[in-house]
Amino acid sequence: MELGDDTVPDETTLLNFCHLLEDHNLIRKIFEDVNAYLGEKGLLLSGGSIVDATIIHAPSSTINKDKKRDPVRLDQYIVRLEALAEHRMSFGR
């Protein structure tokens, strides 16, 4: 895949692929095959976590000019956090 030359699969396509791997218990098999290949090269792969480093637009502060909490901005921030949490839960299925 070449950046700019090839189309990148959308989120739904990637999620469907992940679910397909899960449904057929292929994740462990792929991990074992990759680990065996790397082992032949003298490398070791162990379990880990993927950390989402998505950058989102967010207000710089929920405090307004009067140095008090701005309920509108705070509500917008909470909605964004809830949406991000829902996205993460749906990705992990």
Question: Which terms would index this structure?
Answer:
93 residues; elongated; mainly alpha
Short description:
The protein has 93 residues and is mainly α. 53% of the residues lie in helices and 0% in strands.
* Class of secondary structure makeup: mainly alpha
| Number of domains as seen in the coordinates | 2
Beta-strand content estimate: under 5%
- Largest beta sheet, briefly? none
* End-to-end gap: 27 Å
Outline type: elongated
- Kindly state the percentage of residues in helix: 40-55%
**Uncertain regions spanning at least 5 consecutive residues:** none
Mean pLDDT: 76
Order of helices and strands: HHH
Whole-number radius of gyration? 20 Å
By DSSP, the count of extended strands is 0
The total of helices stands at 3
Describe this structure in words.
The structure is a single chain. The protein has 93 residues and is mainly α. The protein has two domains: 1-48, no CATH class; 50-93, no CATH class. The chain is 53% helix and 0% strand. The protein contains three helices and no strands. It has helices at residues 11-23, 27-40, 71-92. The longest helix has 22 residues, at 71-92. The radius of gyration is 20 Å and the shape is elongated.
